[in-house]
User: Fold this.
Amino acid sequence: MRRTGTSMMMHCLGLGGLELAYDESREQALHREFPNNPNKYFYELEIPKAIWLPLEKGKCTKAMGATCLNRGIAPIKIVYMVREPKAQLESVMTACKPELNDYQKTSRDFIEKLEASNEIDSLIILDYKDVVRQPLQAFYALERHGWPIDAFKASTGVDPSLKHF
Assistant:
């Protein structure tokens, strides 16, 4: 889901030693569209194009909702970011000013799809506020679930001052 800390998570995963896969041309386009945000977004190819492409095995890719399923590389590990809906909406309105009907689906809808999938080796659900409050604990959770990550280095990428509301 947008505005739940997915870019922060990708940044942290990279700092923690994991290889990231994202579309640099989309990155540049987003920076032209939203010039007030100097941070990386780490998006894969633009949806719907991306849902037809396989994810890159052994790399971390940011996929929104349940678009990571049916990509032909099972088993996969997922860290799913959630955020309190009111805070998420405030952040969306501050950073993006989208149409409100874009946000009718809830994280619960996507989590149910992910939990029902037999493609997933590890599903870790992290709350944005908990990651911001205790980043080291969040990345230790990934480590405990078999992620090859340096939890301490990953936790250094959390910057609460970047909150968009």
